[in-house]
Write a structure and sequence with these properties.
The protein has about 280 residues and is α/β, with parallel strands linked by helices. The protein has twelve helices and eight strands. The protein has an eight-stranded parallel beta barrel. The longest helix is centred in the last third of the chain and has 17 residues. It is globular.
Length: about 280
């Protein structure tokens, strides 16, 4: 497998909310607006909504027939059985532009040859460490890790390794699943990601993340910008990142990200970085 050149819009749309937090009509509205704003990278997974996300995205692809876009999806371990038939069917495509191993598993080390035989243009790995990425070898040309002001799985060493080996870095959860907005300070908000998937709570609800949240809150109050705006701006201005995935429930969430992309106060961004993911 010889991967084509990387093709990522600076902002990508994560489709994790489809069929789980928003219905098909709301998902189509989000996808249409993303395409209008110039987003060309759409990210889903077989696990999202038990296949609902892939199915909704596939119906949108069939309806809109967008050109020059990249569709990424993910498969869960174990990786002995390399079968993406269900994903292809739900998406309504004959190949996958970018296929990720959704998380690390020891069977990934034996999966590369089997992956070569699949109708896949590029291979990626999600939620991996630098050592795990090294072990996977050169076939994997993209990684996707969590990266935000509160919690980061993108170290400087990982960035350097990816730059040296021409591996594109895609990041997700720039708002920390809503943690960085501060809306969960007095308890988990009903209907939020932290309520729907309680496992997210242990990722963010700890002292180090709360300290970074407090720092963000203080800078937001002093500068007059919202916490969400500053957190998004920080994530979207990180060096060495090919694409930052944003999620959402309404088109306004997409506009919010583009507004943050236009943020150009270098002093504030530098101040935010002083304690980010330290």
């Amino acid at each position: 497998m010889t991967p084509p050149p990387a093709s990522f819009s600076r902002i990508g749309l994560g489709c994790v909310t489809f069929g789980r937090e928003i219905d098909e009509a709301a998902s189509f509205a989000l996808l249409d607006h993303a395409l209008e704003r110039g987003i060309t990278h759409f990210d889903t997974a077989a696990a999202y909504g038990g296949g609902a996300s892939e199915r909704i995205l596939g119906k949108w692809l069939a309806s809109r027939k967008p050109a020059n876009i990249t569709v990424a999806t993910k498969i869960l371990p174990p990786y002995e059985r390399m079968d993406i038939t269900d994903s292809l069917r739900r998406l309504g495509v004959d190949h996958i532009d970018l296929l990720y191993l959704h998380q690390w598993h020891d069977t990934a080390l034996k999966a590369a040859d089997a992956l070569e035989k699949l109708p896949v243009r590029r291979l990626g790995a999600s939620n991996v460490t630098l050592d795990q990425l090294r072990d996977l070898g050169p076939r994997f040309s993209v990684i996707q890790n969590n990266h935000n002001l509160a919690v980061s799985d993108v170290s400087d060493a990982l960035r350097d390794y990816c730059a040296a080996h021409e591996i594109a870095i895609v990041t997700y959860s720039p708002l920390g699943a809503g943690f960085l907005t501060g809306k969960h300070q007095n308890g988990v908000q009903a209907g939020s990601r932290f309520e729907i998937i309680p496992g997210h709570q242990q990722v963010y609800f700890h002292e180090a993340a709360y300290q970074r949240l407090a720092r963000l809150e203080a800078i937001a109050k002093r500068t007059g910008h919202s916490q969400a705006h500053l957190a998004l701006a920080w994530a979207l201005h990180q060096p060495g990142i090919a694409c930052t995935l944003i999620g959402g429930r309404t088109p306004a969430h997409i506009d919010q990200a583009f507004a943050a992309l236009d943020f150009d106060d270098a002093a504030v961004l530098s101040e935010l970085s002083l304690d980010a993911a330290a």
